[in-house]
Design brief:
347 residues, 6-stranded parallel sheet, 10 helices
């Protein structure tokens, strides 16, 4: 049996992504074969494609960390899943047996792999994955909506609610409002009862950010963010900042924090090496937490809220699988708002 997949045969630009025919993987003991109906495009995919993720791949390789679809087949010993079930893989391939997994900290599994990074991923019509890394989708939730929500909303939820401890009445700074995590973070913060100040690099995105619930929106390309934030908050600053950009945006976030403020960081595509003024850091009693690896429980929480209509994923555009290269070009242009989705079965 054969399938269509985007095979990466060498690191490079978007032109290295080609649609090819390859064998459908067969589920072994404890594994599930998923027929993908929607596949997400993420910033980490562009890092993998360029060889910048920090983990080398064996070629040919199939990228993609998230998808949604139905169970096509199950391997020996699989319990709780059957063909036809609506499911989604969790990108973190945890072992389930190390000390952290046993303690309920599967997001820092000592033996974790990453779907689409250390193993063949979802840029294909079928994906094979261990059953304990798969979740059931809520009834009524579409495949594209599930993919658009899963990684972005779970990451933002972990950052803002689990680690950032966001409380009703607090003020939060959300960077990169047009990104998947940023657009999710605005909604989660509003659901939590917070005041939201969002940043974006384009005035054209202001309206979309406000439509999601942002109380104020700032252009980080033309505005002194810490000064503007202090002006908006009566000289106090924000209680919590969510950054997924790094570089100057991370510095802006620290500068915008109130005394005793918290910073949660989940990415650094705009600069991995950042020089921090530690005097400001300890005098303001700032705390900073790195995260970005959600648990299956968090994924199920946010997908449930999406199914209930309390959160709404933003989809910028859907592409046929064959146009994955164009999706990567849009991703790298930053000229988008929300998630981009691939359809593995579109002509």
């Amino acid at each position: 049996m054969e399938m269509q997949a985007i095979l990466l045969r060498q690191y490079g630009g978007a032109e290295t992504l080609t649609l090819e025919t390859t064998a459908v993987p067969q589920p072994g003991p404890g594994q599930i074969l998923i027929r993908n109906h929607a596949v997400g495009v993420n910033h980490c995919d562009t890092d993998v494609r360029r060889g910048l993720f920090g983990v080398s791949q064996s070629f040919p390789h199939v990228m993609g960390v998230d998808s949604a679809g139905v169970v096509e087949a199950v391997g020996p010993g699989v319990i709780g899943f059957k063909p036809g079930d609506r499911v989604s893989p969790h990108f973190l391939l945890t072992c389930g047996t190390c000390r952290n997994c046993v303690r309920g900290k599967e997001n820092i599994c000592l033996n974790a792999g990453v779907l689409g990074v250390t193993a063949w991923g979802t840029y294909a019509q079928f994906t094979c994955i261990p059953a304990h890394n798969v979740i059931h989708l809520p009834d009524g939730l579409g495949f594209a909506e599930a993919v658009a929500a899963q990684t972005a909303f779970a990451t933002a939820w972990e950052a803002l609610i689990e680690e950032g401890r966001l409380q009703v009445g607090e003020t939060v700074l959300i960077n990169a409002a047009g990104s998947g995590v940023g657009s999710a973070g605005i909604q989660i913060a509003k659901l939590a009862g917070a005041r939201v100040i969002a940043t974006t690099g384009s005035d054209a995105k202001f309206g979309a950010a406000r439509d999601l619930g942002a109380d104020e929106v700032l252009n980080y390309s033309t505005t002194d963010i810490p000064k503007a934030v202090y002006d908006m908050t009566g000289g106090i600053g924000v209680d919590l900042a969510l950054d997924m950009v790094g570089g100057d945006r991370l510095i802006d976030s620290i500068g915008a924090l109130a005394q005793g403020g918290r910073l949660v960081t989940v990415g650094a595509h705009a600069g991995e090496q950042v020089q921090i003024d530690m005097i400001e850091f300890f005098r303001k009693h700032i705390s900073m937490h790195g995260c970005g690896r959600s648990t299956k429980a968090i994924v199920q929480t946010v997908l449930g809220l999406v199914a209930e209509g309390k959160l709404k994923p933003v989809i910028h555009r859907q592409f046929p699988l064959a146009e994955a290269a164009e999706a990567h070009r849009v991703m790298e242009s930053r000229n988008f708002f929300g998630r981009m989705i691939l359809d593995p079965w579109a002509a």
